[in-house]
Amino acid sequence: MTQPGRLPVPCPLGFWVWLGSQGAEEFGVSGFGSGDCLAADAGVLGCMGLTGSCVAEEERRVRANAREYNEKFQYASNCIKTSKYNIVTFLPVNLFEQFQEVANTYFLFLLILQLIPQISSLSWFTTIVPLVLVLTITAVKDATDDYFRHKSDNQVNNRQSQVLIGGVLRQEQWMNVRVGDIIKLENNQFVAADLLLLCSSEPHGLCYIETAELDGETNMKVRQAIPVTAELGDTSQLAGFDGEVICEPPNNKLDKFGGTLYWKENKYPLSNQNMLLRGCVLRNTEWCFGLVIFAGPDTKLMQNSGRTKFKRTSIDRLMNTLVLWIFGFLVCMGVILAIGNAIWEHEVGVCFQIYLPWDEGVHSAFFSGFLSFWSYIIILNTVVPISLYVSVEVIRLGHSYFINWDKKMYCAKRRTPAEARTTTLNEELGQVEYIFSDKTGTLTQNIMVFSKCSVNGHSYGDVQDMLGHKAELGERPEPVDFSFNPLADPRFQFWDPSLLEAVKLGDLHVHEFFRLLSLCHTVMSEEKSEGELLYKAQSPDEGALVTAARNFGFVFRSRTPKTITVHELGQAVTYQLLAILDFNNIRKRMSVIVRSPEGKIRLYCKGADTILLERLHPINQDLSSITTDHLNEYAGEGLRTLVLAYRDLEESYYRDWSERLHRAGSAPEGREDHLARLYDEVEHDMMLLGATAIEDKLQQGVPETIAILTLANIKIWVLTGDKQETAVNIGYSCKMLTDDMTEVFVVTGHTVLEVREELRKAREKMMDASRSVCNGFSYQEKLSSKLTSVLEAIAGEYALVINGHSLAHALEADMEVEFLETACACKAVICCRVTPLQKAQVVELVKKYKKAVTLAIGDGANDVSMIKTAHIGVGISGQEGIQAVLASDYSFSQFKFLQRLLLVHGRWSYLRMCKFLCYFFYKNFAFTMVHFWFGFFCGFSAQTVYDQYFITLYNIVYTSLPVLAMGVFDQDVPEQRSMEYPKLYEPGQLNLLFNKREFFICIAQGIYTSILMFFIPYGVFADATRDDGAQLADYQSFAVTVATSLVIVVSVQIGLDTGFWTAINHFFIWGSLAAYFAILFTMHSDGLFRMFPNQFRFVGNAQNALAQPTVWLTIALTTVVCIVPVVAFRFLKLDLKPELSDTVRYTQLVRKKQKAQHRCLRHAGRAGSRRSGYAFSHQEGFGELIMSGKNMRLSSLALSSFAPRPSSSWIETLRKKKGCEGSSAGSPSGADKTLKV
């Protein structure tokens, strides 16, 4: 039976959990339901894959303070379970998981075969020792990881929360919080579940939250309780609250919520404005109470976290394929030799039955061939030795430590090193083709700085040196001194002293400019002590503008619902606030209407240049042209611009307009349209004051990093929850977008048809432009097999900008390919206003169709989904918590380190792993195929050429350390050259260094070596004699000669393959050779024979064989014949067709004594920008909130009743420099400029 309101459906997805140890960790989980800790939600367990079906809710019913009622629905609790094992289940479950690997199962199968005496010619320890070693190492690693998961689980589940139970607040563990509980949150606490806000310490049930963990935005947002619950201020009233909420089922839509509260026979609609979502932080609110609606994996944050996927590299997948091919090849060799054995036994062996009888149980040549097949499978299995997998893990571990130890990726400011949180993906860092990046906190610091401004046709902010040239950043003089202003913000810096001089000298245009900035905003001010102002800005842009006005002498001090108090140059002035014309994304502007103490009514407006310049009075034409030039200059530097204007209103006109505004605000229908028309009416014929330019500070080195990565043929897509204007502005700042681009396509359609049409037009424009460029020329380009469309070979540079609502349509099944083809044809792609789940969908789309390696990088919980989805996830340990870091594969503190991670560590890891695999397959085919050739000369009897100790030690001792040293330390060019020549990165993207072709070349070389290794000694030994004339051709001497030749040849070969020699390489290569001879002579010594006469029978054989000149000549001949063709081929290739890395190495040798010349990417502005630099991260609704007074504290309201407190009389002294003649005809405050309306 299903519960009421629940419907069983197939499970759509599964969840995993990611946690950590800091304050924000508790909501970074998308995990199992109550599972082991409490009664489990069947629906959650179904999604976990623990039951056969998943229960999907049609609606959710929650009754406050009624646990028994809510528990019958089996809702998920806050209990977190991320661990996989316990003490009892660890061994069986872990072994079961490990034997899911084909290689482990294969070697277990070989071990079983070796335990059968009739078919085994090798001892069982040759397989069981390395197998147990691999299983043990993996088990210890898994146990360690699970221990930390247990530790994190316990830390999070045992966190304390204040839960209202029986009318009393009790400290409860987080895992004991249930749906329907009422919990209390205090200031700066994280929201533990999705709550319905009931009441708070603020008037009208308001509270302020920071949603950086959800959408990456650090500006505060306001939430409000519904009026009927906002009055429940104490625990006794809340204990009696028994309202029931019927709402939507759990979903991943962060910006939407629909439900109804039923209480006291009334119903009240609920929206997202009434919800506090898990992952938010309570700010500037002493306390609040909330009703738990969704908990654990049902919360919206968890629903957006996506599914954790086991990540494997492309080399891993290729190796699995190659292992299957090799196994097929092994079977074929076994069949050939088995057939040979059957024929030989039938034709020849039958004649020797008297003294070479068949083994017991063998009664026919066919059955002998069958047993011989399995014997050869055992003997020849070393073509894929288990040591391969051990060596791969050791090499990857070494590469991970190199990343962790890299001092050039260490951030001293935050004391944060780079960290490789996984050891399985290092070589894939050298194959990345697409990077998906968050914006806020990843590319930017989310810090807004007032950088430049234009006032009355004069541009301020550029600093000039002694010669009159613009000074570079490092050449700037000291910043402007604001010490004369006691209310100045000491953190504010400005570099152009002429603007402050204009203020001091009484330039009325400049005064009016800063007066506008101090009045036209929705900032709240708190003064905790005399002169210590704290601004609470709804957006960082507003905070930067108001702070700039503050430092230049126009200090916003306080506000009430009807007044704004500003200290203008030391004098307190209170303006009557008549109206706030609020900002929204359509208007792209905001205005305030104020009455000055003199009774003058003035409208101040700030907004986008594309909007405001069209609304100016015609007399502003000349000034508008100059200001537009300044705006273009600012936009060219990647600054966020706003235009400032004002308009004087007559009293009669304002009264009439105000009455119409009041009627429109009370209209039952069409309220928004009526208000928009009235706003538009009054915001016309304005006078231009100037423009502001704010720098959204990029992280250090972002433009240079993006430029270098682009040269490495890596495409960068920005996926952000921010607004389109802001994202585009940052795109220009970090040089992803440039004015030199052929065109930037903007897709903003709201319907499927609109989006499809916009994408179609974009593709047509690109194709038309490409045809026009190629017309008249023999244009031919070799397209990669990866290209899905000819669009990717177009001429010109394009960019695509798409909004979240348009992206939702573009990602539908019937349009996703069109969107992908259009996007991949562009040099840069920016997706704005996207949800966390949409980020993951975009990454999944590229993975699905492009078959390219993807990397996602972000710093917030809203980035976790795409970090988990991409092949490689990188977390930035920034200002938005550590959720991205906890879900990532690699982490560091600054975006610029991505360049080094990919171009140095990634490229080297890929190069080393490819060289390791090529050499490993070569040496093992050279080693193993000797047995195959020997089979034709030993009656296919499954006799080995080498003794079993050599077979066991070959991959463990004799050849393991040199290849490990090459795999860990090798490099083709130094790190400086890797950064200097980004094109060196392309072989990894094209998978040129290890692929099926390279694999066949390696095994062909190995087979060639094995042929020479066997037949040269065989031919020599056929007629060779010892010094005393005795026959040299005994079996053991032949085995010693072949084994010695093999060890020497593969050692010389790895010397040729090694591109970067270290002391470790020398020690391992020559040390392995010395170890071989030491072990060889020891095993043939008289001492071992006396201790183990049955194991070491060939006393003195090695010493006698290697004392013969003929043997050494044979070894030398074999080595030369094996190595010379390789040397000749590489010499010709280097001379006739050198690779880029060869050219770089040659250049390095030629210029060895010269200083390396580093390229410098100059920060050059773009002249003549035709785009708008407008960007303003503000939200609608704060104006109405301020005018209503609902967000005003009593202390704030009381400020207006106090007498003005002039901070000092410094302005009188300053004005002595210039008299009142500063009031010119162009004064913006002149009465003659009042516009008659």
TrEMBL record:
An example GO CC term for this entry is: plasma membrane
Transmembrane segment boundaries:
122-140, 322-344, 364-390, 916-937, 949-969, 999-1018, 1038-1056, 1063-1083, 1111-1132
- Binding positions for ATP per the UniProt entry: D438, K439, T440, E542, F583, K606, R640, T720, G721, D722, R833, K839, N862, D863
Q: Which Gene3D superfamilies match?
A: Calcium-transporting ATPase, cytoplasmic domain N (3.40.1110.10), Calcium-transporting ATPase, cytoplasmic transduction domain A (2.70.150.10), HAD superfamily/HAD-like (3.40.50.1000)
Tagged with keyword Lyase = no
Q: Where in the cell is it found?
A: Endomembrane system; Membrane
Task: Supply the name of the protein.
Answer: Phospholipid-transporting ATPase
GN (gene name): ATP8B2
